[in-house]
Amino acid sequence: MSAKPLGPILCATFTSPDPAASARDYVTHLDQTVVEHGPLPADLAASWGAPAAAGRPSVLLRPPSAEPGWFRVVQGAAAPPPFAAFGWLAMEILVKSTDAVSTRLRGTPFSEIEPPHDLGVVKGVRAMQVVGRAGEVLYLTERDEISRFRYRFAMGEVDRIFIMVLGAQDYDASRAFYEKHFHVPIGITTESAQTYKLTAMGLPLGRKYRLLTFVLAGGQEVAGKIQHDDHPAEARRNDKPADDLPPGIALVTFEVPSLDGIALPFIAPPRIIDAPPYDGRRVATCIGPSGELIELAARG
To answer: Checking DSSP bridges between strand 9-16 and strand 249-256, what pairing results, if any?
Structure first.
């Protein structure tokens, strides 16, 4: 069975004790637009293996560009402390100016983890990290317009999720999982001190951790990625409860061309979901090696 191209990122779903308040934060301070709100459909909750979440308030938001890379907030427990658990660590958003967004977020429910700074890993990248009212971690990143990287300026001051950050419990096994089951070319491989992460976790500085990026499909000018981190062993599992969503960034929805031939156990049989962001795609969810929920939405 051949690996399937993975991407783009359609949506990231996180839990919040107050989805309406979290959604207002994203609308007011990060320029997102509410697409729909209401009780979480039972069939969708079942496809995640989270029947207890059925009927809970949920809000779906999209960026001003309406490109893939949306947010969904579902009522549930607040996230663990930043970077404390393996799995989906952060949602990385493309912005026009990191410094301008940093100024906008002062005095809001978004608390700064690390101020804007130039990244040494890739030239022309400036980023910052914040945590939202529900404990969800965001990276806010600007990127120079460099044609050879197929990047362009953000569409608006704040654009969309273009990278999901994954904290791997077993770096090599996790890399092998994504390379076996999905066609994910490697973008960069490096080592990084990740001082903001170690500081947030209360760990000694000076360590370096491996990091790579999986380049996602999708044909967008700004290539979507999964940042795959070798996460500190002091983190804990954030496994999904038997009938509910894991707290924090609960799952990420990726488009794939087809579910046929994917040699992974799905939580529930695939089903067609007409509501956005699926829009008639065939949808199923599996669990990655670090406990992360991976929702696949097939065009055919």
So the answer is: antiparallel
Q: Output Rg (C-alpha) for the chain, integer angstroms.
A: 18
Domain residue extents for the chain: 4-298
What is 4-298's CATH superfamily?
2,3-Dihydroxybiphenyl 1,2-Dioxygenase, domain 1 (3.10.180.10)
- Tokens at 167, concatenated: 């904290």
| Residue 227, beta-bridge partner list | 165, 213
- Bridge partners (DSSP) listed for residue 186: 214
Closest among 152, 131, 148 to 80, alpha carbons compared? 131
Reduce the DSSP state of residue 42 to 3 states and report it.
Answer: helix
CA distances from 237 to 67, 81, 88, 130 (A): 32, 13, 11, 22
- pLDDT tens string, the chain, 300 residues long: the values are 567 899 999 999 999 999 999 999 999 999 999 999 999 999 999 999 999 999 999 999 999 989 999 999 999 999 999 999 999 999 999 999 999 999 999 999 999 999 999 886 666 789 999 999 999 999 999 986 554 444 455 678 999 999 999 999 999 999 999 999 999 999 999 999 989 999 999 999 998 999 999 999 975 556 799 999 999 999 999 888 889 999 999 999 999 999 999 999 999 999 999 999 999 999 999 999 999 999 999 987
**CA 195, CA 293: separation in Å to the nearest integer?**
27
Strand ranges (E), the chain: 4-5, 9-16, 33-39, 57-62, 70-75, 87-95, 111-118, 125-131, 137-143, 158-168, 182-183, 186-192, 209-215, 225-230, 249-256, 271-273, 281-287, 293-298
